[in-house]
Design goal:
The complex is a heterodimer of chains A (86) and B (148). Chain A has 86 residues and is of the alpha+beta class. Chain A has three helices and seven strands; from the N terminus they run βαββααββββ. Chain B has helices at 13-22, 52-69, 100-117, 137-144, and strands at 2-7, 29-36, 43-50, 74-80, 82-84, 89-97, 120-126, 129-132. In chain B, β7 (120-126) and β8 (129-132) form a beta hairpin. Classes of the chains: A alpha+beta (86), B alpha+beta (148).
């Protein structure tokens, strides 16, 4: 399993705060992840995540290049929209 | 003395500040900022969500930077998460130093970064509906003050 976590308003876009994705299809790269978000979580979620301001963390580490992600079995991928201001 | 915490329940800042001050004997000054949920028109509640693997480690990293940048004896940084009502304390930052400028600037520095760069997402309850709070331009200006 790979765990996806949706923060802030991405939880609204996903309709939930996290999902468990079966990793039977092997490692997931960025296009795989976007496809899964739309096909298995909620239509339109991939577009919300494509927003350049959304950062991605893999196992608690924010990625400098989110498009270079490779998620494997047991990993946690978090989608982080811009933080709210004061 | 360094005390960095996320709290899920209401707190009374005075109960933290007293012991913090006493834990830094010989200090020359202590500066404390307490932020509370504003009584904005129509706002019934504010909810702060966070991401466990990033939020508290991010606060520790911010404290590290404050210790590097200012000459501090102690730093207290406490932030609430969860649902808060107007008037409830949301954040408390207190810095103890030999000299006032370090204490005051360290609190200002930590607050600017907590407000604009820490991993918190906020939404307000208005008329029974939740609304996410977007980033503000002011926050980026606040951060820019420290980029030197």
């Amino acid at each position: 399993m790979i765990r996806f976590v949706y923060l802030g308003k991405l939880a609204d876009a996903a309709g939930k705060s996290e999902s468990q994705i079966a990793s039977s299809s092997g490692d997931l790269d960025w296009p795989d992840i976007l496809a899964l978000l739309d096909d298995h979580v909620r239509e339109g979620l991939a577009d919300a995540v494509r927003d350049k301001r959304v950062k991605v963390a893999l196992n608690g580490e924010v990625l400098a290049d989110r498009e270079g992600i490779v998620a494997r079995h047991g990993d946690e991928v978090a989608f982080l929209p811009p933080v709210s201001g004061g | 003395m360094r005390d960095i915490r996320l709290l899920t329940e209401m707190f009374i800042p005075g109960t933290l500040i007293g012991p913090f001050t006493q834990a830094n004997p010989g200090l020359g000054g202590v500066c404390t900022f307490v932020g509370e949920v504003r009584y904005d028109e129509g706002v019934e509640a504010l909810e702060l969500s966070h991401y466990e693997p990033l939020t508290l480690p991010g606060m520790h990293a911010l404290a590290d930077r404050a210790f590097e940048r200012f000459t501090l004896m102690g730093l207290l940084m406490v932030h609430r998460v969860g649902v808060l009502r107007p008037g409830e304390p949301i954040v408390c930052v207190s810095a103890a130093a030999l000299h006032r400028r370090d204490a005051i600037d360290a609190v200002d520095f930590c607050m600017d970064h907590l407000k604009s760069a820490a991993w918190f997402w906020k939404r307000q309850l208005r008329a029974g509906e939740w609304h996410w709070i977007e980033p503000r331009d002011d926050d980026h200006r606040d951060l820019a003050r420290w980029q030197s």
